[in-house]
Specification:
The complex is a heterodimer of chains A (387) and B (321). Chain A has 387 residues and is of the alpha/beta class. Chain A is built from 13 helices and twelve strands. In chain A, the strands form three sheets. Chain A has a five-stranded parallel beta sheet with strand order 2-1-3-4-5. Chain A has a four-stranded parallel beta sheet with strand order 7-6-8-9. A three-stranded antiparallel beta sheet of chain A has the order 10-11-12. With 321 residues, chain B is mainly alpha-helical. In chain B, helix 2 (18-49) runs parallel beside helix 6 (166-188), helix 2 (18-49) packs antiparallel against helix 9 and helix 10 crosses helix 11. Classes of the chains: A alpha/beta (387), B mainly alpha (321).
Chain lengths: 387, 321
């Protein structure tokens, strides 16, 4: 008798819950990143992280809506990015999106988002112009810009006593931006000088000619402003030509695929990135635990936590003001000191998060290790020519 | 702009010592050898059938990926010797591509014999896209650049700034042997005689009892096998392959064949080295960002074609009536 009453109660409760779940409205949100091509590891990590944010929200009984994530692939190519951005923004059901890892694609699509009044939060691209060139209320960014990371880069190179630097950068907006901000910053510090600058195409295969020319200049450091695929090629061809300079990269090569592509040759490569490493972020432990529970095929990579934070912010906004693009844009304009797994987020009047934290990395034993914790900083190991 | 400041160019050129020059020449020889091997294919196909087969570069890609898959297979079987692995990779990739070349000739190119040449060009262009996309979609993680194993000895001799690598020397020697072998095959064997006869005059060749279809298929097999060889060489040189390599190498190989004079083997090789030389000159001597090297190289090709429309080396006898 008593037992059946409990059973009945449980049954009714279950029915009620199911009814409540069914009653939730479906809301679509978007994600765009490079899911194929050379930097797809970062894109897939970002996609999984955004997906994780959606799943956690859907599992939350307090959530007002049931979310569906629409994922599109920009292939890290500006022309493809504009197509998929248009496709996503034109679909009125999709309320907002976390978009782009590649700067070249992010800058190419800001006008599209503005035209359609489609709110986006950039989760990985670092070109300053994405938020600062225009004043589009639709465009926001949770990660920092390349200005900060290049300041940190120039500072480290100068403080290690290096005097000469050769610059290789790809000729997309991303690579050109890196070249510009790094060169400016190095000049301002005034301890090292740039002995040669080489603009290369973003899909170039052969760098032996540029590198032979650099070999003649005999620089202490080769700075590289570009992404992983050609970073791997340049580093490996440096070795083939017997060039001993330090390879100094940017956030574009902070990815496990850089190390996989090079093996032991990756040792001693420098790189810089906005924000702190995932495990050192305020919510890093929570994020990694939840991420691992889902058993995704790929790791979150360097920007996964940012993609998660961006998507979470979108979901928060929708929860608060409802699935309406205009209201979401208004809501995102007021983000100030908001807690997230990447730390406090404040959007300035351009929708740019103001995070000054930069992490310096060096590859040690097949891992990107924080410079301060590395054996290179403690003097146990030495980079080529390190004093 | 990402160029080089004016003061620097002078500083760079004056002490360009012998070692650096040797390094540039070595880089150029490697590039030229790969371009030349691709160009030879274009020239062979044009010789026997008067067609331009635009899928040639992508056959190279498929060849390189076949070699990579073979390597994975060899590894799975636990064969440790890099030489044996390399030999298997070369043999399997070359044979597979030779077979693919024959299939393309038999089922796509030959049926279009009586159609305008433009149709062959179009159909092979489309086939190239299909091959490329197949590698991208069906090879595991095919959209990403794949590391290619370094199977040749890694040693090198440093002579000042010149770094002479043993693997480069071996690849150059192997490439040269292949070209000499091809030359001997064409000029000293009955098969070569038949290929040349078909190239010169198809109808007379037929009346002399030459099996036209068989000769065309064999020629396509040889050309495509060479592409596979170039693909493996490309992989060994850069230690990386991706699904897009063939597109670029195809365009360059085609241009090289054109500058050399379509139908001439020597012309194709010469064209390949010339193009590599132009790219290097474009990077080293021009005060522009090195991203412009291809603009420079292709501009010179256009100028050369305007000057010599039939190529640098003309065919001894024109096969057109």
């Amino acid at each position: 008798m008593k037992k059946s009453a409990i059973l009945a109660a449980v049954g009714i409760a279950a029915l009620l819950l199911a009814g409540a779940a069914e009653a939730k409205d479906k809301v679509k949100v978007g994600f765009i990143g490079p899911l194929t091509g050379g930097v797809s590891a970062n894109g897939l990590g970002g996609r999984n992280s955004a997906d994780l944010a959606v799943r956690l929200r859907n599992a939350d009984p307090k959530a007002k809506y049931e979310y569906e994530l629409i994922v599109l692939d920009d292939e890290c190519k500006p022309n493809v990015a504009v197509q998929v951005a248009t496709k996503m923004a034109a679909e009125k059901d999709i309320v907002a999106a976390a978009t782009h890892y590649c700067s070249a694609t992010a800058i190419a699509t800001v006008d599209t988002y503005h035209k359609f009044g489609f709110p986006v939060i950039v989760w990985g691209a670092v070109l300053p112009d994405i938020t600062y060139r225009n004043n589009y209320a639709e465009v926001h960014r949770v990660n920092g810009t390349m200005i900060n990371q290049n300041d940190a880069n120039a500072e480290l190179i100068s403080s290690l006593g290096y005097k000469t630097v050769a610059v290789i950068h790809d000729t997309t907006d991303y690579g050109k931006g890196h070249n510009e901000y790094f060169s400016k910053s190095l000049e301002k510090i005034g301890k090292a000088k740039i002995v040669g600058t080489f603009g290369v195409t973003a899909d170039q295969q052969d760098f032996t000619t540029e590198l032979t020319k650099i070999k003649a200049l005999n620089p202490d450091v080769i700075y590289f402003g570009g992404l992983t695929p050609i970073g791997v090629r340049i580093r490996s061809q440096m070795d083939k030509l017997g060039i001993k300079a330090v390879f100094d990269g940017t956030s574009g090569i902070v990815s496990d695929s850089y190390i996989q592509g090079l093996g032991p040759l990756a040792e001693g490569t420098l790189a810089f990135r906005e924000g702190a490493p995932t495990e050192k972020l305020p919510g890093g432990k929570f994020f990694m635990e939840k991420y691992n529970e889902q058993k995704y095929e790929n790791p979150p990579e360097a920007y996964g936590a940012f993609a998660f934070a961006a998507m979470n912010m979108i979901l928060d906004a929708i929860e608060k003001v409802g699935p309406d693009r205009k209201k979401v844009i208004d809501e995102l304009a007021n983000v100030k000191d908001r807690d997230s797994i990447v730390g406090k987020i404040t959007f300035d009047d351009h929708g740019q998060n103001t995070v000054p934290v930069i992490t310096k990395y060096v590859v040690q034993d097949g891992k990107f290790v924080e410079w301060a914790d590395s054996e290179y900083a403690s003097g146990k190991r030495k980079l080529p020519g390190q004093k | 702009m990402p160029g080089i400041r004016p003061g620097m160019t002078v500083e760079l050129l004056t002490p360009m010592n012998a070692a650096l020059l040797a390094q540039y020449v070595m880089n150029g020889l490697m590039l030229g050898m790969m371009y030349g091997l691709v160009a030879v294919g274009f020239t062979l196909f044009f010789g026997v059938l008067d067609v331009i087969k635009f899928s040639h570069g992508d056959v190279l890609t498929v060849g390189a990926f076949t070699a990579l898959a073979t390597f994975a297979g060899v590894n799975a079987m636990g064969l440790a010797s890099p030489w044996l692995a390399l030999l298997l990779m070369l043999v399997i990739a070359t044979l597979a591509m030779a077979f693919l070349g024959m299939l393309i000739a038999r089922f796509l190119v030959m049926p279009l014999r009586s159609a305008p040449a433009l149709n062959t060009l179009l159909i092979t262009l489309m086939l190239g896209t299909v091959l490329r996309e197949c590698v991208r979609l069906f090879y595991p993680q095919g959209a990403n650049p794949k590391p290619f194993p370094a199977l040749l000895p890694r040693g090198s001799i440093d002579i000042g700034a010149f770094n002479l690598r043993f693997d480069n020397v071996m690849m150059l020697a192997a490439g040269a042997l292949v070209i000499v072998g091809l030359q001997l095959l064409l000029n000293r064997t009955k098969l070569g005689l038949a290929i040349r006869a078909v190239a010169q005059d198809e109808e007379t060749a037929r009346t002399m009892g030459i099996n036209f279809t068989a000769i065309v298929l064999i020629t396509f097999a040889i050309g495509s096998g060479l592409a596979a060889f170039a693909g493996v060489m490309n992989g060994l040189y850069y230690n990386e392959v991706n699904f897009g390599i063939g597109l670029y190498l195809g365009v360059i190989g085609f241009s090289a064949a054109i500058i050399g004079g379509l139908g001439s083997i020597y012309g194709a090789i010469l064209g390949g080295f010339l193009f590599a030389g132009l790219q290097i000159i474009g990077t080293v001597l021009l005060p522009l960002a090195s991203a412009y090297k291809d603009v420079f190289a292709f501009a010179v090709v256009i100028a050369l074609m305007a000057w010599r429309p039939t190529g640098l080396i003309r065919e001894k006898i024109s096969e057109r009536v």
